[in-house]
Amino acid sequence: MSDARDTVFLFDVDNTLLDNDGVQDDLGDHLEREFGRAKRDRYWAIFEELRAQLGYADYLGALQRYRLENLDDPHLLRMSHFLIDYPFPQRLYPDALAALKHCRRFGPTVILSDGDVVFQPHKILRSGIWEAVEGRVLIYLHKEKMLDSVARHYPAKRYVMVDDKVRILAAMKQAWGAKLTTIFPRQGHYALDAAEVAKYPAPDITIEAIGALPDRDLSALPG
């Protein structure tokens, strides 16, 4: 986008448009069924260690590290197949794509996500989100620190950020101030962690689920 629009709508993916908690539950069940509880727990331990280091979830990176401990186990190939072939459209929250379509009436919709450069784009593409936003996808390591880049790619007079993490919303609000309206869907384990939510200022708008967004009048937004 070379010209500034009035409003650009930014959307997170995991636990905002797509039930990532459900994906993790399915992966955990698959790991236990195929490899046993001990190996399942070891994978998740590596996964959490890697997330603490990187600041985002890296499923394939955790699998690569897990493989270093199990170099002679050919069954690991089944784990990668599960991740790549996972039916992500079935994990979209109800009316998630309708929310994107509704917001598109008022301005361009853009995916603003954290993640790796392989699996996260794959997830967004396979789920149908990529097509729904017409390829407007940004993926960073720490998106709240990349707002200059966001504004350069999608210049606008004001922005709307939809995210299940109040930490991210608060950081972006601090940077952009009244230029940003924050929308907080209360879904997923981060959003339902009352102690975590209480650490930060209240978002401009709170909705119980992303499926409630198509019913909102977005012609006059607070912020």
Entry summary:
The protein has 223 residues and is α/β, with parallel strands linked by helices. Helix content is 44%, strand content 15%.
Tell me about this structure:
With 223 residues, this protein is an alpha/beta fold. It has ten helices and six strands. It has helices at residues 20-35, 37-54, 59-68, 76-85, 96-104, 119-127, 129-132, 147-153, 166-176, 194-197; strands at residues 5-11, 109-114, 137-140, 156-162, 180-185, 205-207. Helix 10 (194-197) links the parallel strand 5 and strand 6 (205-207). Helix 1 (20-35) packs across helix 2 (37-54), helix 1 (20-35) packs antiparallel against helix 4 (76-85) and helix 3 packs antiparallel against helix 4. The longest helix is centred in the first third of the chain and has 18 residues, at 37-54.
Task: Give the tags.
six-stranded parallel sheet; 10 helices; 223 residues; alpha/beta; 15% strand; single chain
Mind sketching the topology for me?
Elements: E1 5-11, H1 20-35, H2 37-54, H3 59-68, H4 76-85, H5 96-104, E2 109-114, H6 119-127, H7 129-132, E3 137-140, H8 147-153, E4 156-162, H9 166-176, E5 180-185, H10 194-197, E6 205-207
Helix pairs in contact: 1-2, 1-4, 2-3, 3-4
